[in-house]
Amino acid sequence: MNRSLKIFIFIFIFQNISFGNERTSARGIGMARTFVVTSRGVDALGINPANLSYLDRGSYTTMSLLPIGVRAGSDFINFKVYNDYFTGDPDSLDKDGNRIIGRRLDANDKDGIFNLFPSGIAHTQSDFDAMLLGFTSIGGNYAIGFSVTERFSAGLDLPEGYLKILLNGFEEKGSEHTLNNTNYGVRWMREYNYSFAYHFAKNVSLWKFRDISVGISYKPVQGFYYAGTDHYNGSLQNKIYYNKDSVNWIDSIQIIGNIDYAQFQSSIPIDSISQFLFKPAGKGTGFDIGVSAKIISGWQFGMSITDIGSILWSKSPKYSYGKGNFTISDLGKAGQLDSLKNNFKGKTIDTTSFKRNLPTIIHLGAAIQLDESPYVNRKTFAGKLLLEGNIHIGLNDEPGNTTLPRFSVGAEYVIPSRWVDWLRIRSGMMFGGRELFSWSLGIGIVNPVFDFDIGTESIALIITPNSFRNGSVSMGLKIRM
Amino acid sequence: MIFVLFPFFIFGCVKILTPKLPSWQTQLTIPLVDRTFTLEDFMKKSSSLFIDSTNGEISYRPAEIQNKPDTIKLPSFSPQPSRVSQVIGPLPWPNINLPPSISSFKNITGQDPPVIPFPGADIIGIFTKDVNLDISGQLDVFDFGTFEDGSLEITFINTFAFGFNFTNGIAIRNRDDNSLVAQYPAFILAAGETKKMSVVVTGKTLKDQISISGNFQTQNITGKIITSLNTIAISTQITGSSGTGNASLSEAKILFVGNIDLVNLPNESDQILDDSTYYKTLEFSKGGFDIRVVNGTNFGVKVVFEIKEFINKSSSQPFFISGTSKEATISKNATFLREVLLVDYKLQSQELNNAPTNKINFNLKIQTLIPSFVDKILVRKTDSVVAEIVPKKDNLGSTIPYKLHKVLGKITPITIAIDQTMPLATGDFKTKFKADSIMFDSLYLAYKLFTSGLFPTDISLKIYAINSNGIRGDSLTLPTNFVIPISGKQVRRILPGQIDSIVFNKNNSTLDRFISSFISNGQGFFPDSIRIKGTVEINPIDVYKDPNSFGGATDGDTIVTSVRFAFPMRIGIKNGTLRDTTIIGDTTASGTGSNKIDKESLSNIVQGKIFFSIENTFPFQIQIKAGLYDKSKDNFSIPDTIALMYLPMNKDTILVDSARYSQSPVRPGKSYTAFALTPADVDKFNPATFMTLAINIRTSGNGDKAVIFRKDNYLHIKSFASVTFNVDFNKKK
Asked: Which of A282, B45, B98, B335 has its CA at 20 to 30 Å from residue B686's CA atom?
């Protein structure tokens, strides 16, 4: 099995790959998605519309050439866990050195796997964004932008209870497996972005802010597939009752469980997607709003709220639900096992329509062009260094989003050599969110006509390959005019 | 995908190994059975237990059965049509006489009498005199009449001084057609003579205008003084043909001056039922009749009809022949029809003191309804009025019987055969339970019979117990309670409204043997049904013959017998065994089901255990042996006949001590047992779908001493399994 195939299997089988958003700006990916302040041109579409009114490295007009971004990752498993537990016993090798039998998991191994579940839940998320068309232009104090982006997002929150059922079963001492907050969501939507920005005059200031720009995006969105959990709580327990007189004796055992979940689904006919590319299953409207400003020389602040709005899904909408408690004390008693099966299986009914929010996020950031700041000696500072820090706060857990806040820092460096002034080196780190941590790296090849950017959030693999749990790459070509 | 692989291709420092699923051990600790066998489960899963409120003891009442009611059918009667035909018959001569006529000399001879003695010779001539019955100034009451019986007497009074010789007699003829009414023979009417002659006119028709004529010759007229005062006066009288009595007419057109009663039956009676059924009140559910009156006369008639016993059920009014009237008017030559449905009426005896009767009393009067002094009416003696009561017929032309619905009175004895078999509702207990012997401290069998009829009833029944093989045990005979006067015969009799009730117990019967005899030396089963057989006689003959007795019954009245069989749970049992089968797996499919471990995975089982936790509050020790069975290949819902394995696996049993009733609160006997299972054992256990529990019970004293069963007696059996096994998906592949 060649290496590519192995990685493929790792990503697609163990990490449950799917696709998501925020991926079309390869520059931003290289800086750990730290871009609310310094994104420019088409990179600013969908991030902070206020930034459209700033010149993009001196260009008034930019166009994108099919930038795409892909990411798949999970905190459920990392590369070390994979190697340790899912690649076989290192002591059982065949003549070619291949491992013959699977790793025998002992109690410590099981605990090690369970420890992979932060807060008892493993988050798995995948995104894929592809900007089919992007265009921005500045005229005077005004700027406009337009883009069409396909966005695929999927997420799965898996409580450790499932794995405990698999690994530990129902123990003789009793077991309780909680399935609370199980959550999954898959969404495919198309976003049309009509953005407008206004750059106030240089002499306009607000408090200490100047060079102020504001922007807004109007985004009709079309939904083609949605399946998601509204809520999911449950538990499964085998409860042991010991004899009151003699604790050595089991008096009775009961399997006790409860379930309460609801899910929504709506989609175009999956077997004839081509006929429905322009006949969506859901329609909605989103808005982005943003503001950017400078406060002192070199410092710039920005804030945006993206994807305000919702989609009303109305094609083949279905509502699945299940709720109930059950106790099994006698496998032979009519209805007890049926109660278990029926509660988990639930019921699916056709519903009229349902509304789901867009993955609304608040972005806050500050950036400084360090080589131009008063904090360094500009004459002796080698090269150019842009630093930016962002906070991202998701307002819901819709696919592509999380309410787990993220903090990220990113940098873009230009080597002080005229031989390589076409090269941009970018890096960044992000903490929190579903990913917990990622280290990004990216490069940009720039010239007056175009920018070619590529970036990844999986660079931590180099330093701590064993903790690798995400795969990510974005790339794009930006044309300047 | 190339982009996803980007980090790896760039840095190439990570070794990716072929994935291989790990293996591990896991446990499955699950409940299998949690069953509480109450006393009710011991006896019958659906039986009723009741608690004696006086001592808190529990009684087992496997049967309280009310049989399918036997129905009392009241008799029906075949009605016969009845008919009253009234012909008008000969009409009385309306007492009309021919008006007297006087003929003078000129009238007779056509010449005036001379003022001197008659000079001439005797005169020969024809005597003619027209007479009209309608006398001027009187009503025109008569057109004609044909005599049914009559004679016409004619009287001549001669005041002349000479005689007349009527040589050919005198004839009376109807003037319009010259038809002869009466012909009198030749005669001589002497001077100054009065002469009477009579002729039978039966069959002759007399009309209202007649003539009297005849040839005559005077005798010795010469020289006789004749005055205008001399006349021959003629008068007539119509009488019966015998010369006395009234004449009658067979047909006439006359003017009636009053109505006559054609039919007058003021106090008639008829038998509506048979001669053995008497009623004070009576209701029918079926049947009816038509009252039909055919008026064959040329005049209207009035019918007055009353049935004294008939009372309309809805209005409580007496029977009306027409609307709300007892009278009906029928036009000439018309038919009157009145439909009477018996279901609309009830009959109430009108005898003295409302004494039972089998008849109805009615009045029938048919009266002419002739408009007086208006017009003359043609009447014939054959004119008639017919009154009929015609029972209703069905579509096939058969007479619909009068179906008794309710009677208060006397009916002939009705004998009803009773043969009811009532299951004891012991369910499958009779096959689940076997014992070397069983001793009941007391049994109880309550018999009841009730009839909704209101006649004294004699009961002659026996009660048998029958087991499932149809074998009949001892019988219980209902004791007598009444001696019939005169005959001295002893019977069991209940009076109207009484419930016949007998409680059989060991003190008044052989009831203990009645049941216990079915079980002896481990043979036989509990009886599974009770049969009541015999007869019930409604209104026995001695009651029927008593003229002062009467009762009541409604068609469909029932005789209900019931049996309640019970015994306080004081039983001594020797080696009693109860078997019960519970389901512990999927019985819906032929496979092992999703909750079973597949054969390949069985080798992964490391160890297994089955636990039994048993609690016993019965007043006896219990020994339990569990058998595990696969489902039958032919019928998934029943266990296979061959056990997969037994628990315990050796000859031992799980022994559960009896409850300690000497302690307060009562301390249940408990048992905890665990059986280790090897993978081979699990292999046997794995397909088990049914668990059969053989529960052996033995009261103290080796069954010779009865123990008291109480409401809270139960046996709680819990079983659970714990299996530790390897999970190795690689191996499975």
From this structure: B45
